[in-house]
Amino acid sequence: MSRDDEGEPELDRPExxxxxxxxxxERLMYHYDLEKDERVRDRRFPLVGRLLMESRKQFLHPSLNxxxxxxxxxxxxxxxxxxxxxxxxxxxxxxxxLADLWIEADEEHRSTEFTFVVLADxxxxxxxxxxxxxxxxxxxxxxxxxxxxxxxVVVAPGAEAYVASSEADVWRAFAPWADEDPDPEPGxxxxxxxxxxxxx
Length: 200
Description:
By secondary structure, the chain is of the alpha/beta class.
């Protein structure tokens, strides 16, 4: 019986047999276009999300617009039972390779983020230290064409533990037990303000 037959609205996203990933998708679906089991450069990711944010100014009429800017995020989720720093480095290398392939560097490009989330059984001290101090931002044409950034998150759902690099605010979707964190990371609204909240 379908969701419609049961009187429930049909989900506008894929469904995962994995209960944890399906709950994560529920939190992401309103902001990200989600795909299931997508292969990227010969690597399969159980969940992939894409976010596009656009900004433009207009003069008198919407057709008379200028100062168009766009910001994108590509989110990749993988499972590695016992990740190492070398595993994370390979994901970072993939992020840089995708930046070369996917980014159209021009005046309208503000930023692109490549965020890799690794689902693990536990967090090792070396991985925790590496991710917590990680930041990898690349300016395009000295910043004239914006920048791109590679972010890392490692989550151990069974242990209710996570670590995220400084710009990876999507970690909240993967760590529901941390929703009452007294010092929360900035969310999507804060990111929008940061990206497009220039003074007029």
